[in-house]
Specification:
Elements lengths: L9 E5 L4 H11 L4 E8 L5 H17 L1 H4 L2 E8 L1 H6 L25 H16 L3 E3 L15 H15 L4 E3 L7 H23 L11 E2 L2 E2 L5 H15 L8
Parallel strand pairs: 1-2, 1-4, 2-3, 4-5
Antiparallel strand pairs: 6-7
Helix pairs in contact: 1-7, 2-7, 5-6, 7-8
The chain binds zinc ion.
C-alpha cells in the first residue's frame, strides 16, 4: 500500500477557518513539503466558517509564494449526520452556557475524535503522514477531546486500526491564546497577523459586522472573549514575534 507514497513529507491540516486552524496551516506550511486542508460540514449554523476557510487559503496563496508552492488541495467532508447526533449550541440555536457536567454547551461530544477518523482516512488515501490540529488544553480545558492524552490515545488507535504511522501534531497544545498570536507573528510576520485578524472567523454567533483589533465578531460570546483576551495579552506583552 505504500508503493504510491511520494517521497515528500505531507501533512493534512484540520482547517475550520478559525484563528487556531489558520495558525496551524501556516505552521504546517513552514515545515512540511506538501500540505492539504480538510474542513467538516457538520451542520454549522454559520456559512461564514466555510467562507473564512476559503479567504484564509486565498490570502496565504497571495501573500506567501514560498508556501503557495506547498499548499495543495482543500477537502470538505459532509458530516451532517454526525452533527444531527451531536447537536449542541454550535449547530443548533441553543444558548451558550455551562452544562451540569461542567462542560460548555458548545461542547460537541467526540467531535475531534470523529474529525480525526475522517481526516486519517483521507490522509491515507492522499498519502499524507501527518495530521495537524489546533487543539489546545491551555486556556480552555473544558473540551476533553482537545487534551493531548486523548490525542495520543487516538493516534495509537488510528495507527493500530489503519496499519499506519500517522503523527498527530498539535502546535498550539501548550500555548496561551496570546502565544498563539505570537506564533502567527513569528511564522508570517504582521502580514499573517493581519490576514488572521481580518479573514479568520471564531465567533460562535457568526457575526461579522464590526472589525475589532482582534477580528470580526460579536465580542460577547465565549469564543470572542477568548480571542479578544488573547489579543490583549499579546499587545500587553509588546506584540513579541519570536517563537513562543
Ligand atoms: Zn462572538
Amino acid at each position: 500500500m505504500t508503493a504510491s507514497r511520494p517521497a515528500t513529507d505531507g501533512a493534512l491540516v484540520l482547517f475550520s477557518g478559525g484563528q487556531d486552524s489558520a495558525v496551524c496551516l501556516a505552521w504546517a506550511l513552514s515545515r512540511h513539503d506538501r500540505v492539504e486542508t480538510v474542513g467538516f460540514d457538520y451542520g454549522q449554523r454559520h456559512i461564514v466558517e466555510m467562507e473564512a476557510r476559503q479567504r484564509v487559503r486565498a490570502g496565504v496563496l497571495e501573500r506567501y509564494p514560498q508556501w503557495a508552492e506547498r499548499l495543495g488541495e482543500d477537502h470538505v467532508l459532509d458530516l451532517r449526520s454526525y452533527g444531527a447526533v451531536a447537536e449542541s449550541a454550535l449547530t443548533a440555536d441553543r444558548a451558550i452556557e455551562m452544562t451540569q457536567r461542567g462542560l460548555p454547551s458548545t461542547f460537541v461530544p467526540g467531535r475531534n475524535l470523529v474529525f480525526l477518523v475522517y481526516a486519517a482516512a483521507l490522509a491515507d488515501r492522499r498519502g499524507l503522514d501527518v495530521l495537524v490540529g489546533g487543539m489546545c488544553e491551555t486556556d480552555y480545558s473544558g473540551y476533553p477531546d482537545c487534551r493531548r492524552d486523548t490525542l495520543d490515545a487516538m493516534q495509537q488507535a488510528l495507527n493500530l486500526g489503519m496499519e499506519q504511522a500517522f503523527r498527530i501534531e498539535t502546535p498550539l497544545m501548550r500555548l496561551t491564546k496570546a502565544q498563539t498570536w505570537q506564533l502567527a507573528a513569528s511564522l508570517g510576520g504582521e502580514s499573517l497577523v493581519g490576514l488572521i485578524v481580518e479573514q479568520s472567523h471564531t465567533c460562535y454567533r457568526g457575526e461579522r459586522g464590526e472589525l475589532h483589533p482582534w477580528g470580526y465578531g460579536c465580542g460577547e460570546c465565549p469564543a470572542c472573549e477568548l480571542r479578544a483576551a488573547g489579543w490583549d495579552g499579546w499587545v500587553a506583552a509588546g506584540r513579541p514575534a519570536g517563537a513562543p
